Amino acid sequence: MTSAPDAAAPPLLRVSDLSVHFGPVHAVSKVSLDVAAGPFGLGLIGESGSGKTTIGRAVLRLIRSSGGSITFGGQDVGSLRGAALQAYRRDAQIVFQNPDNTLDPRMRIGTTIAEALKVHRVIPRGGIPVRVAELLTEAGLDPAFAERYPHQLSGGQRQRVAIARALSVQPKLLVLDEPTSALDVRTQAHMLKLIARLRAERQLSYLLITHNFGVVSELCEQTAVLYLGKVAEIGATDVLLNSPAHPYTLALRSAVPEVDVASRRSRIVLPGDAPDAANPPSGCVFHPRCPLAVDRCRTEVPQLREAAAAHRVACHRAEDVLAGAAMFMHQRTGKTPPPTATIGLGQ
Amino acid sequence: MTETHPAPNGPSGRLAITNLDISFGSRKVVSIDELRLDHAEIVGIAGESGSGKSMTTLAILGLARTVGATVSGSIEFDGQELTTLSQDDLRRIRGRRIAAIFQSPSTAFSPVYKVGAIVTKALRLHGATKPEAADRAAEAMRQVLLAPDLLRRYPSQLSGGQLQRVAIALALALRAEILLADEPTSALDVTVQAEVLDLLRDLRDTTGMSVLFISHDLAVVAELCDRVAVMRNGVILEQGPASQVLSSPADPYTAELLDSVPKLATTK
Known about the structure:
The complex is a heterodimer. Chain A is α/β, with parallel strands linked by helices. In chain A, 31% of the residues lie in helices and 20% in strands.
């Protein structure tokens, strides 16, 4: 999208060396991210189990982090108490993948949105109905929907309600957790347009969590690719799309289906499934599935390092990937690997 | 009902739907003039929620009546008219010769049985002996690139992609001729989706299985399907070879669906 943020401006949100452990499972390991003041979008992209949702929840302090720090506007989020925490709960909002789980089926839409306004005392009570109508209009809904129940709305409309509710308290930061994954493609396209419009109008910053490169490419200046709780690669979204330095990024990108035959990439088939986070592989966690893995990858953990200006990657073979990774691409017209190549790796 | 046995790859096609109407009371939800699925062909039905694509699947499986719909018209499978078949005769076809996989594999498997027990039970119901069932289950698992050991696990111990592949393995073990795939990859990660699409294409090539692939995502349809039918409000707006329909859509709705696919920002 637009250019990278001004390096001199302090970030709105800074995540430093964040770790989140659930017992033996290291869901997130030493992840560092910056989200600039709005309008700005950071995409968190990865498969199930990559830790992207856990990062979003830790940022909102819905779960406790096990290590590292999260600062918002210079304040340490982990040590917020009382009124300061309440203010943070207003400043940072979330929109979940499935609005059905977040809208009370017995509450009218208007009541649901009004509840957020009341809890946070954003405006005088008398002004609430007018404000609800404004918010629904802003989210592209008929204000008359305030009288309806969630089941009377389509999935896309319910997601708009979730966005209207999140925006009701004038947040500075949104965590959008797979906001379009449950929607039809055409509804998804409308939702992406809505998010783009709101970010411009309200100078929003957001963390956009998704497994689909197509979605970040429309909405995020920067993208972090996550694999098994670690940042594999981070940089400007168009750089990651056009010259990725991590083989996993290449594979993820090649998996996005495209209508236009000419623009289709050779598919890179990753054998097996993502490994168990309670028992991660040695060395680079990606090495069992990596077509470029060498001995060093099995023993030495790659650190995040500069691949180019403002583009960091955790891969021993990043230079080879950048130099032209065509050698290991699996032609999409070809067959999937024979069973022997994959059996056993998924366990 | 008299049985006819035309050549398997006869000119009538493996599955032929003609003048199919599905209604709830006086409300018609599906009205299809013609839709065919030939031997070893992958046909996509593209449409959004409410387009009638899933009701069409249920009608082919003979299950539309169980949800209270009335069905008229013809669904011919290998020369046999399915709409007038008795439940007993249907049971011999459904599951075995016409198999189905759905969007959420976790709801397709009972959580209290090991997946192997579910697969072998289905095989036994369709006439396999116990050792045969075990052999065929293991062989089918290899065909979908899974370790047969996974059959000893419970559904909750498998990932969504693995479970969807087990569902496909069940269809293979039963030697299904037609696979109805209703949004089989919509709930999966893109990388897993890519694997399942590759798998379906390979199985078509190696076994000659025909696939009716239902999806709201035209990019997925474009990657997989030989032909595509675009549905809206129960009606097929246009159908034809996938490359043709998707490169020069005749209906503005198809064009809108195409525009909705998020574009990768490729500047090089």
